[in-house]
Amino acid sequence: MISHGKDVKVFSGSSNPSLAKAICQKMGTELGSCEVGAFSDGENYVSIYETVRGSDVFVIQSTCGPVNDNLMEMLIMIDALKRASAGRITAVIPYFGYARQDRKTKPRDPISAKLVANLITRAGADRVLTMDLHANQIQGFFDIPVDNLLGSPVFVKYFTEKYKDCMDELMVVSPDVGSVARARAFAQKLGVSLAIVDKRRQKANSSEVMNIIGDVTDKRVIILDDMVDTGGSLCGAAKALVELGHAKSVAACASHGVLSGPAVQRIQDSALDEVIFLDTIPAKSGVKCDKIKYLSVAPIFAEAISRIYEEISVSPLFS
Predict the structure, then answer these.
(1) What's the distance, CA 213 to chain centroid?
(2) How far apart are CA 235 and CA 256, in angstroms?
(3) Is 199 a catalytic residue?
(4) Is 209 exposed, middle or buried (0-12, 13-18, 19+ CB in 10 A)?
(5) CATH code of 80's domain
(6) 48 forms bridges with which residues in the sheet?
(7) Is the dihedral of CA 216, 220, 226, 227 positive or negative?
(8) How far apart are CA 124 and CA 79, in angstroms?
(9) Which of 51, 158, 225, 249 could bridge to 254 as Cys pair (CB 3.0-4.6 Å)?
(10) 91: which strand partners?
(11) Which of 92, 98, 17 is nearest to 65 (CA)?
């Protein structure tokens, strides 16, 4: 029973329109009519072409590259909807940018994730729906409800089907000590063991030394991470698993394929057999790599949006 009696409307920014269309298709609704763009000097503008008065509005926008433009575009959309008397506004952010600076690691560091949280709240968002935040504590930076969806069920389904005949050879690997909790939960869902790649720099200007905690000999290993940016750490870990650990094969999966700089070429030249991303960030246009594959998160977001609109629990999506 929907108590608020509002209609639901979904709008999309320009960062990931294909995902927004797929979400609407799963929901059985049409994407809201709006125009987003930039003036000749680079300023963003937004025009909403249908009434949203009293509506339950969802704005889908990943804050991926160009990060500042996409972030500002989302803030302007939220402001426009707020001023048009939308009943409730949910910022749907499949990839939450500026998440890597979530604490002060040295004097005079900013906490950019908190600043962005303040901007989104101040712009007029009533709640946030996102996926696989770089650090879970970012949820606490908001003074509004935050639902942080998990992408791991999509990976579990994919790898369970792929390795159904050799699950006893499978092993999950954390690419660094900081990702152990995420990798452990993923390994438990797959019902396999866990190993860790420990990398350290012995002294300044020396190369990193990779140590593998766990026996990956003759194992089909899956490296799990939340994002891949330049791909250096991921490809280095894959090389160590093959050369030092004597793994049979190495695959990787990450929720967010940022893929900046030489990342795609590094993956192509690496020891990785395949890298699986979720489509929280769209694939780079004109860039092809045989090893990279994308899985859709549209069904998860469509279900979450429907549950939020109908005011029923979202927690079943976390199990």
Answers:
(1) 27
(2) 16
(3) yes
(4) exposed
(5) 3.40.50.2020
(6) 34
(7) positive
(8) 6
(9) 225
(10) 59, 128
(11) 98
DSSP H or E stretch at residue 131: strand 127-131
- 170 and 144 share one domain: no
Is residue 1, in this structure, part of any structural domain at all? Answer: no
131 lies in the same domain as 169: no
Element (H, E) at 153: helix 152-162
Annotated catalytic residue within 114, 199, 239, 248? 199
| pLDDT tens string 23-77 | 999 999 999 999 999 999 989 999 999 999 999 999 999 999 899 999 999 999 9
Provide the domain limits for residue 35. Answer: 8-150+298-318
250: three-class secondary structure by DSSP:
strand
pLDDT in tens, 277-316: 999 999 987 778 899 999 999 999 999 999 999 999 998 8
**Pairwise CA distance, residues 217 & 252, whole Å:** 17
